[in-house]
Amino acid sequence: MACRLTSLPLLFRADSGLCSLKIEQEMTAQATALNREIAFIIKWNPRSAPIESMAARRVADAGTVWTQLREGKRECIWSEMLDLQGVGSAANPARRIYRLTERTLDKEGQVMLMAHYTLDG
Fold first, then answer.
1. Quick one: which of 12, 14, 39, 116 could link to 18 by a disulfide (CB 3.0–4.6 Å)?
2. 79-114, pLDDT tens digit by residue?
3. How distant, in Å, are the alpha carbons of 1, 21, 30, 43, 108 from that of 6?
4. pTM for the whole thing?
């Protein structure tokens, strides 16, 4: 229906509820059938992601750039290319942008025994 409104390229934005390869493939197929260009920004759902091992790799990597948000809280951002069957193109490849947040103090200033990590994508 959006293709009827404009001939410009379309941008599809969604929350993590639509983070599904099957949905992305179907929308790409429909855009291709209509000879339209479409891009996606979809919040990633890290339900089965190994957060602790990803965090350990980032902490161990000397090339990781950390931003200190406040005392006891820092974050790093990086991206990686994805190979999603039928999604993306050479001009518009599929990639995921990650944000890892490390907390060593809670909101009251109490020092945590172990760092707590949150991963967004």
1. 14
2. 888 776 666 666 667 788 899 999 999 888 889 899
3. 10, 26, 16, 25, 51
4. 0.74
